[in-house]
Amino acid sequence: MKNLFHLLQIDWSLYEYKFPLLAFLTAFSVTLITIPPAISLFKKWGFYDIPEARKVHTSPIPTLGGIAIIAGLIIAILIWFPFKYNPVHICFFFSIIILSIMGVMDDIRDLPARYKFVLQISLASLMAVSGVRITNLEGLFGLYQLPLYIQYTITVLAIVGITNAFNLIDGIDGLAGGIGFMSLVTLGIFHGLNHNIHLALIAFALAGGILAFLFFNFNPARIFMGDTGSLVLGFIIAILCVRLIQSNSLMENPVLPHTPVFALGIVLIPVFDTLRVFAVRIWKGKSPFTADQTHIHHWLSKAGFSHPAITRVICFLHGFILLEVFWLQGVKQELAIALLVTFMSIVFILLKYLSALNPEKKLLLTNFLKLFSKTIADKK
């Protein structure tokens, strides 16, 4: 049975997604069942995320929720994934296990950043050696097939960068999970359209676990995913983005004309926010890893938005970018990137302005927006 998405202009067969959807339901069910006893155990063992200056929650919340997400992912894969001897699959699942162990240790003992970076670079290099590499930029900046050393360099930088970007944006209830869920479903759909059903299965399985987790993570959160969840989430999204670029460049009739730009759109908000924060810290003579309250969710919090509102605003922006980057596929890649960067820059300038307003001006602006919304609703 064929389904036509008129807005996206995609013609796809739902039957091809049978196993990815089964993996989604399996991971969702396992994670949903696992989290309540996990919350009780983590409380009993004292595994809490303790509030501090750079964090926005005010009371200790159980962490390590990523374990339940990973449990759902693994069980779904064990049931539905067609295992065959493949170096890429072996390296991928090995990397997930090692990254999960490191995440648990970091949530419990707070590991030094240099140790985490060394391990992340090692795992990213392992994936690149196994064959998961950005091999072709499809004409972006005049570049097509890349030399081998550049393939390794940009692949490792992309995987490590995206992994940490998702880790750093996990600062508000439901935010990393919401963005991650939307990105995974998008990646799953397009991997399926490229007939990479195995990759679609992984994307939908993790999306199912994330969706179940969000029931317990939306404000007020009962549990956090911790580094255990956010690092694995970012790593898998990074691998799926790299594989989408890699496989799409080999197709005679690709679904996406400009995959590098599309992949950038999938991770744009966390990556742009991380690069901006690092650049500002370096400009001020600080270490880029200095903890502060300069991320996008901190600005929205200072502007007076509640935690649920912050998550909704940023997820809405993410959804808009996903649609925008698809509709920009017919535009020259360099122009599409310029438009995306310009859009993000305008958004961040507006948010910084809002966060700097005094309480009286914030109240005046809030009342104006409410009146404007009411006027529009009455006209309709």
What does this protein look like?
With 380 residues, the protein is mainly alpha-helical. The chain contains 14 helices and 4 strands. The protein has one domain. The strands form 2 sheets. A two-stranded antiparallel ribbon has the order 1-2. It has a two-stranded antiparallel ribbon with strand order 3-4. A hairpin with a 4-residue loop joins strand 1 and strand 2. It is globular, with a radius of gyration of 21 Å. The chain starts with a strand and ends with a helix.
List its salient traits.
380 residues; mainly alpha; two-stranded antiparallel sheet; 14 helices; 4 strands
The percent range for strand residues is: under 5%
Low-confidence stretches: 1-8
Category from helices, strands and their pairing: mainly alpha
Note the gap between the termini: 37 Å
Number of helices: 14
Q: Tally of extended strands?
A: 4
The helix fraction, in percent, is over 70%
Short note summarizing the structure:
This protein has 380 residues and is mainly alpha-helical.
List the helices and strands and how they pair.
Layout (H helix, E strand, L loop, with lengths): L1 E4 L4 E4 L4 H28 L2 E2 L11 E2 L3 H15 L6 H23 L3 H18 L17 H22 L5 H19 L3 H21 L8 H23 L10 H8 L1 H16 L12 H7 L4 H21 L5 H24 L2 H21 L1
Antiparallel strand pairs: 1-2, 3-4
Helix pairs in contact: 1-2, 1-7, 2-7, 2-8, 3-4, 3-8, 4-5, 5-8, 5-10, 6-7, 6-8, 6-12, 8-9, 9-12, 11-13
